[in-house]
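We modelled the chain as a single entity of 104 amino acids. Its sequence is:
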Amino acid sequence: MNAAIDDRDVVRAQYIVCRPGQGDEWFQVYEPAYDAMNRDYTMAAKFIGLILWEVMQARHEQWYFHKIDKTIVDEHNLIEDIQVVEYFRAETLPQALQQRATLS
């Protein structure tokens, strides 16, 4: 995870674990976490999120974070509220927020 974080100014677990442009397809190195959670995607995502939290706490740079509340409709047409934690590298925070605003 640290190697993937080194070149980023904005980090979410999804950015580290999933293949870019492939939606929810995980890199093979993270498949054991999915297997350990009995192949329950939601539980595996929460588990990876906790691991990322620990990794971010141990890094030497200063990072800020915030929670994003998202509402999704699952495959059974049920509404589900999820929370995503997004981390911002402190030294590039103004640029990261500006880029994020243009994407919204």
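As a brief sanity check on the tokenised model: The mean pLDDT is 82. Residues 2-103 form one domain.
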